[in-house]
Every structure is written in C-alpha cells, then in structure tokens.
Design a protein that fits this description.
Elements: H1 2-24, H2 30-46, H3 50-56, H4 64-69, H5 73-82, H6 92-100, H7 106-113, H8 130-141, H9 144-154, H10 164-173, H11 182-191, H12 195-202, H13 208-217
Length: 227
Amino acid sequence: MATRNLGKGRSRAQHKRQRKSRATFKGISDEDFRQLLVKVSEWYDDRGYIDMLKMLYRDNATDVYLLENASDTMTLLQLLYDSDDLSPSDLTLLYETVKATRQFGLERIIKDQIPSCPNIKEIKISKFKPYRLKLMNLGFSLAKFDVVKISGLYNNPVKRYKDGWSLISDMEHRKIICEANMKEFIKKLEKNNFHQAISALCEGLFRLSFFISYFTNCPQHSVNIWL
C-alpha cells in the first residue's frame, strides 16, 4: 500500500512539473511578433539573402510558386506563418533559421525584444532536414567562379545565376540536385575538382543510409568523407 501511495505521489509531482513547464513558455504578443518579423526581414533584405532563405525554406513551403516568386523576406515569413511553422507561441523555426544561415549577429536584435531567446549557437536544429542543411553548406562554399563553372556543366547555353543559392534552387527544381540523385551529383563534382563543395556536402554526419548505399554500390569511389 505504501509503495502504491508513493507511486501516486510521484505521478502527481510529475504532472505538476509538466504543467509548470508548459506554463513557463507563454510566447509573445501578436504586436511583438509582427515587430520581430519586421526586424528579421530588414536584416536579411539589407544583406541580399532572399535567395538563401528561399532555398532553406523549400521543404517548409506549402506553395512553391509563392516561395519562388517572393521578392522580400517578409513574404517568406508570412508563408511560414500561414503554414503554422512560425507563430507568436513558437519561434523555434526563427531561431533555427538564424543558426542555419549563420547570422548570429541577429541574435542581439532578437534578444532586445525577447530576453528569453536561447543561445542560438547552442540550439539543436530539428526543423530542417539534414539534407537541407548540407545544401546550405554547399551554398556557403561556392565562389562566383564555381557557380559559373557548375552552370556550364548543366546548362547550354550557360545560365547566369545571381549567386550559389539561386543555382542550387534551380537545380533542385529540375531534380538535378535531390536526395535520390546526390551520389551522381557528388561524383560529377569530384570529376571536375570541386573539392571544397564536396567537403561541404560531406561535412559532419550526413544520412547514414546514403553513405551505406554509396560505399556498397561504388567501392571504387575516391571521395574523402569526414565524419
């Protein structure tokens, strides 16, 4: 009987802690939320990062046409709000966006409005797929001459992309870059000596199933993988 009462007491304590934990995070007001989106939008627009965000949010967008034709960051954030990926009560995607895009200076602006904002460098990204994060690494690794050369490998005549982000987005749209075709894409990069791009795609822990398939089907490969 005593054991049973102890179990009930422990259960009540657990429920109390859970209720307290849920009550701790109250989100922010709609007005503060709108103001925050304005500040974030200004940051990315001022730096010309709209194409970077379009590529990052491709898996989150419910309407790819609206995503691809957006001309400012606020439109992208509105699409995320409409799909319920971003709201005053859940700013996780916004924090993870800052980390994925490496815009850590934006954290200071966010903390001015939300003192409880976590240390963004330390958060674990869960809203973006590992594949999407590898494409972010790829975009950061591409110099202007890399973009022109890769365009020449896949386009005749050569397309003049504004940056690496627009190149990756276009190649995704045409299914040249996709999870199912990543092995062939990496092999082509290797053949043309895009060593930095290969390192970016293979940095850290990628999809284990991809590596198993790659090593099994291509034992003769020479791509160096860093885990």
